[in-house]
Amino acid sequence: MNKIKTNRAPQTIGAYSQGVVVDGFVFTSGQIGINPKTGKLITKNFEDEVLQVLKNIKSVLEAGGSNIDNAIKLSVFIIDLSNFKLVNNVFVNFFNGDYPARSVVEVSALPLKANIEIDAIGKQL
Structure pTM? Predict the structure, then answer.
């Protein structure tokens, strides 16, 4: 098992790795909408927050030898399921019609009062 560490995604805020590589698969830890350059959580605009989360996922996948096109499965956790349509809107533009499998679950709270968290499984190139 190889642990992933990249400066292109936010640094961890707890006792976990950004991701790990096991047997040709990349498993990311949950990512929230922290801009890795500023260290600030994006929360003013939900769609911007979702986009930042996806960029963070992309960076961790790439650091593990995968890419967003090889994302197999995403688990999406949101604090308000009424934002489901907004999540879809961002996904449509980000993935250009080639979507990984996905589940979406409403949760009561997320770290740092984030509105969304996503983790991913990708296949190495």
Answer: 0.97
Cα distances from 88 to residues 9, 46, 95, 121, 123, in angstroms, run 22, 12, 10, 19, 23
Q: Which residue has the tokens 């960029």?
A: 55
Are the beta carbons of 80 and 1 closer than 8 angstroms?
Answer: no
pLDDT in tens, 75-89: 999 999 999 999 999
b/e map 70-84, b = 16+ CB within 10 Å: bbeebbbbbeeeebe
pLDDT in tens, 24-76: 999 999 999 999 999 999 999 999 999 999 999 999 999 999 999 999 999 99
CATH fold label, 2-123? 60s Ribosomal Protein L30; Chain: A; (3.30.1330)
